[in-house]
Structure formats: C-alpha cells, structure tokens
C-alpha cells in the first residue's frame, strides 16, 4: 500500500508541482490585486481630501482678497479726494450765488425772505449738490479752520501783491463738470486695478504656502536631534517658499505705490481724457442717458484703447508697481525698511518679477476690461439712470433699461454731476461697497485668480532656484518634486474651476505669452489623465 502510493506520487509529481505553482501564483496575483485596489482606494481618498483642502484654501484666499481691498481702498480714496477737491469748487459757486443775490436785492430783504432767484437753474443745480451729505470730512474741517482763523485774525489785513483772478461762474461750472466726472472715473479705475493687484499678490503667496504644506507632508521624516538649530540661509526650506514673514510683508507693502502714486498718475490720464470728451458739453444742457453712455465710452477708449490691439498694448504696470530703482523708496515709505536695510532677497525678487509678468499679460488686460465694464455699468446704467434720469429699476439687464423705459429720458448735465460727486464716495468706501460687489460678480476674475494660484509650479523649486545640477541642496530630489507638483495639479483639476479657467484660456488661445505657456504646462498632465 505504501509502495503503490509512493509510485503514484512519483508518477504525478509533475502535475502536483504545476498545481502548486498555479495555486501559489493565483494567491500572489490575488494579493497583488487586493493591494492595488486598496492602494487605489487610498489614493482616491487622499485626492478627495486634497481637492477639498485646495478648494477651501482657494475660497478662503479670495475672501481674504475682498477684505484686504476694503481695508486699503480708503487710503487711495483719501488721496484722490484731496487731489480733486470738488467741494472747493462748490464753495466758490455758492459765493458767486451769494454775491449775485446781494446785488439783486437788499440785505434786509435777504434776511427777511427767500429770494426768487433761488428757483433759477443755478439754484436748482447747487441744491442738487447740497441735497446729499457728501462733503469730505477733512475738507470740511479745513474750511472750518480757515473760517475760524479768519474770524480770530487781527483786523489789519495783509496786502496781497498779486491776487489770483476771480473765476467766472461758467469757468467754475466747467471745472465742476470735469472734476466730478474725473474723480468718479479715477476711483473706478483704482478700485478695479487694486482688486486685480490684490488677487495676484495673495494668490501667489497662497500658492507658495500650499505647495510648501504639500511637500512638507510628502517629504520623508528625518531624524531630528533634540537641539533645534535655525537656518536663515537661502537654502532654508520654508524661506524658499515665501513663508518668510518679512518677505511676505515687504511684498504686500508694494501696493503702497498704487495707493499713493499710481492712482495720482492715473488721475492725470483720466482727467485729460474727460476734458477732451466732456469739454464741449454745457452743464445746463439736457442729454439722454444714451448720450452720456456714449461719452463715457469715448473716455474709456482714450484711456484703455479703442481697439482690441490697443487695449492689449496698454501697459498698466507703471500704475501698480514701482520701477526697480524706486522699490527701496516704496519699502521705506511703507515702513518696511530703513535706509540701512539689506536689498531685496531673491525670494522677494522672484515674487515681484512674476507679478510684473502677470500684469503685462493679455489675460490681465482682458479681465480688467470686464471688471471696468461691470463697474461703469453699475455707475451709469444703474445709479445715474435711477438718481438723475429717474428711470425705475427693471428686472432686465442694466444695459437695456433705457431701451425699455427710458429711451427718451433727458436730464441736465449739472444734475448728473451731483450724482457723480456722491457716488465717488460710494466707489471708494471701505464698507458695504456695492461697486466691489459688482466687480466680484465677474466670473473671469475668479478664473484669473485660479490661473495665478495653479500655474508656474515648475518654478517653485524647494531651494527657490534652478533645478540644474550643481544647485543648492534641497530636501527632496527633482523626481520627487515633479511627483508632488503633479499631485497638486491633479488636486486642482477637481475643484470645479476648470470651466472658468478654460474661458480665460480660450479668450487668448494662441497668444504668444509666457504666462499662457506656463498655464499650458501646468495642465498638461491633467489633460492626459482626463483622456
């Protein structure tokens, strides 16, 4: 029995070996498949968490942009209001009116009863300016101090060798017209540019911080000693990503240029365009809302460009950032550095250079045009039409209001000037700013922010420099870095912003720009995975 069993096993040992091999291979294959399924599930879970984390960070970043604009906008508003003192012109017009009344009636009659001339055209126009409290607080204080100083002065007048010639009423009304419109338009341009600049700055810093957190989590743990040494050299991991608090502060302080210098330069350009377009318009003239819209569009064409090609060639960088030789001056004026401070670090220089490239890109001009369209539409088609032309709001789009109910409605230019004056303070308000709310309704603004947040990963190397051989030491290899960059791009692919980003890319398909090229590289892997 035992002998026959051995012979049977010997005869079938080949079959047993094959069967054992098959079973072993099947077991190993099953374990491999189960491992891959578990790995895929873990990867999907990690990607879902990464996408949600990225979405949350991105949305929080955009909210921070809104609060930042509201916080610093009053500084630019203060400078523009001081540079275009409409209230002083109004004061001169009131003096003219008082002198005219004094010549037409006696002093006793003025004190006892209201003069009939109050109902004339000039009286109505001035009344429209006085009907709302829009006079700037600092200017009211200045007027009060000057009046008190005049009252307390000694009765001996100081002779004036060359007094300024007194302006006529027509000249004052013309100045009022140009100043009121220029101030409102300048604030619209400043608000739009400040919104875009803030989005660029905070999204660049947000991108760098997000990449730093992703790579920090993905980097292998190192054996740390109990003694912690700080490294402030250029190869420091956190400093290379812009997590250096001092670098971020200096970078954000560059907005000082727009708030104090750029807005004034922009004001001169806007004022020149307003003079050229509105110079021949009589303040007593009645015009339709359509005519006012056409004049406003002519002003915008002279500032931004009349054609698509001219708008692309229009450079806004000089209003937003200082030139390189003035950067130290801006940092000193903003309180970030002093005369003996060290020059800009390489990390700060990279941030400034990338910001400049973004501002000079066609996408920036495209999005800025859309923001200005929304802001000017809210001013002319909503506020001016309702407050000056008494056109009631409708459910249709603002651009069609006059076509529906107010095509023939007319109003005096002087009445519209009063609305321009009051709306200037609303445009520059740091709280409940409806113009900023209208601007942020433009979908391409969020898409532009998404482009900034998700592009140029390849330039964010851990050492903040070149990836070529011989560079500074870094905490992970180039292959490991590329892997982490790919995971970040994949995470961004599922955040729901692809369609908005696509609209920006489609608008400038084929444009010869390094910015669009970088964006194409950033989404190359993502497109392959979707296919």
* Shape assignment: elongated
Strand percentage lies at under 5%
Q: Biggest β-sheet: count, sense, barrel?
A: 2 strands, antiparallel
How many strand segments?
2
Distance between the termini: 66 Å
Helicity level: 55-70%
Question: What is the string of helix and strand elements?
Answer: HHHHHHHHHHEHHHHHHHEHHHHHHH
Total number of helices: 24
Mean pLDDT comes to 75
**Measured on Cα atoms, how large is the radius of gyration?**
33 Å
Uncertain regions spanning at least 5 consecutive residues: 108-120, 131-154, 224-242, 462-476, 503-531
**Strand numbers in spatial order across the main sheet:** 1-2
Give me the secondary-structure category. mainly alpha
How would you describe the overall organization of this protein?
With 531 residues, the protein is mainly alpha-helical. The chain has helices at 2-11, 13-83, 86-104, 107-112, 121-130, 137-152, 169-218, 237-240, 245-252, 256-278, 289-304, 308-313, 317-320, 327-333, 346-359, 362-387, 401-404, 413-427, 434-439, 443-454, 478-493, 498-507, 514-522, 524-530; strands at residues 286-288, 410-412. The chain has a domain at 57-85 and 172-218 and 245-436. The protein has 24 helices and two strands. Helix 5 packs parallel to helix 18 (413-427). This is Peroxin-3. It comes from Lindgomyces ingoldianus.
Helices, strands, pairings?
Blueprint lengths: L1 H10 L1 H71 L2 H19 L2 H6 L8 H10 L6 H16 L16 H50 L18 H4 L4 H8 L3 H23 L7 E3 H16 L3 H6 L3 H4 L6 H7 L12 H14 L2 H26 L13 H4 L5 E3 H15 L6 H6 L3 H12 L23 H16 L4 H10 L6 H9 L1 H7 L1
Antiparallel strand pairs: 1-2
Helix pairs in contact: 2-7, 2-10, 2-21, 3-5, 3-7, 5-18, 7-10, 7-15, 7-16, 7-18, 7-20, 7-21, 9-15, 10-11, 11-16, 16-18, 20-22
């Amino acid at each position: 029995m035992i002998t026959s069993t051995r012979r049977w096993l010997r005869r079938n040992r080949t079959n047993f070996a094959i069967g054992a091999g098959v079973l072993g291979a099947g077991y190993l294959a099953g374990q491999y498949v189960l491992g891959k399924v578990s790995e895929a599930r873990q990867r999907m879970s990690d990607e879902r968490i990464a996408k949600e984390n990225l979405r949350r960070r991105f949305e929080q970043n955009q909210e921070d942009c809104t609060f930042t604009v509201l916080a610093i906008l009053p500084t630019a508003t203060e400078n523009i209001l001081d540079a275009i003192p409409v209230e002083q012109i109004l004061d001169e017009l009131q003096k003219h009116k008082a002198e005219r009344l004094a010549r037409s009636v006696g002093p006793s009659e003025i004190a006892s009863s209201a003069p009939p001339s109050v109902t004339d055209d000039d009286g109505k126009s001035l009344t429209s300016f006085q009907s709302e409290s829009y006079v700037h607080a600092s200017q009211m204080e200045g007027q009060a101090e000057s009046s008190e100083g005049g009252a307390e002065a000694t009765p001996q007048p100081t002779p004036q060798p060359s007094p300024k010639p007194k302006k006529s009423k027509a000249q004052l009304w013309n100045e009022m017209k140009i100043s009121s419109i220029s101030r409102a338009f300048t604030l619209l341009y400043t608000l739009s540019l400040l919104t875009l600049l803030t989005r660029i700055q905070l999204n660049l810093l947000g991108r760098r911080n997000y990449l730093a957190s992703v790579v920090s989590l993905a980097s292998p743990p190192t054996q740390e000693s109990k003694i912690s040494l700080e490294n402030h050299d250029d190869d420091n991991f956190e400093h290379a990503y812009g997590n250096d608090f001092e670098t971020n502060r200096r970078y954000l302080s560059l907005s000082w240029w727009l708030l104090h210098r750029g807005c004034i330069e922009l004001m001169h350009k806007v004022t020149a365009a307003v003079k050229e377009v509105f110079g021949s318009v009589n303040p007593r003239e009645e015009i339709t809302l359509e005519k006012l819209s056409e004049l406003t569009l002519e002003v915008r064409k002279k500032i931004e460009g009349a054609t698509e090609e001219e708008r692309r060639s229009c450079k806004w960088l000089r209003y937003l950032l200082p030139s390189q030789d003035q950067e130290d001056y801006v940092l000193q004026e903003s309180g970030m550095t002093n005369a003996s401070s060290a020059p800009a670090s390489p990390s700060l220089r990279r941030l400034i250079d990338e910001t400049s490239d973004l501002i000079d890109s066609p996408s920036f001009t495209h999005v800025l045009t859309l923001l200005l369209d929304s802001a000017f539409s809210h001013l002319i088609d909503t506020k001016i039409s309702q407050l000056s032309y008494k056109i009631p709001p409708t459910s249709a789009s603002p651009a069609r209001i006059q076509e529906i109910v107010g095509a023939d409605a007319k109003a005096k230019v002087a009445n519209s000037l009063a609305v321009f004056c009051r709306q200037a303070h609303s445009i520059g308000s740091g709280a409940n700013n409806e113009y900023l709310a209208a601007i942020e309704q433009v979908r391409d603004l969020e898409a532009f922010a998404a482009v900034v947040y998700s592009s140029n990963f390849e330039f964010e190397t851990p050492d903040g420099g070149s990836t070529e051989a011989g560079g500074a030491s870094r905490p992970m290899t180039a292959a490991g870095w590329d892997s982490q960059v790919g995971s970040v791009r994949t995470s961004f692919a599922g955040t729901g912003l692809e369609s908005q980003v696509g609209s920006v890319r489609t608008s400038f398909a084929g444009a010869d720009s390094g910015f669009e090229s970088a964006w194409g590289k950033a989404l190359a892997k993502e497109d392959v995975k979707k296919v």
